[in-house]
Amino acid sequence: MSEAENQVTVPKQELPPPFIEGDGNPDDEPWQIRDQFLREAMSMMRFLMSAGKVVPAHIFPVVEAFSAEYRDREIERKRLGDAYVFDQSKILDITKLTEVHDLLSNAIAPATPRAVLLLDSSFAVKSRFSWLSTVPLLRRLMLVAIFSLIGFIGFALSPYVSPTGGDIFSSDGLPLFVNLMFFAFAASLGACFSALFQANQYIVDGVFDPKFETSYWIRLLVGIMAGLILASLIPLDPKALNGLGKPTLSLLGGFSASLVHRILNLLVGAVEGLVKKMAVAMLGGDSAQRDADDKKAMEQMVQKHVAAMKKEEKAKEGDA
Question: CA quadruple 55, 58, 63, 68: dihedral positive or negative?
Answer without folding.
Answer: positive
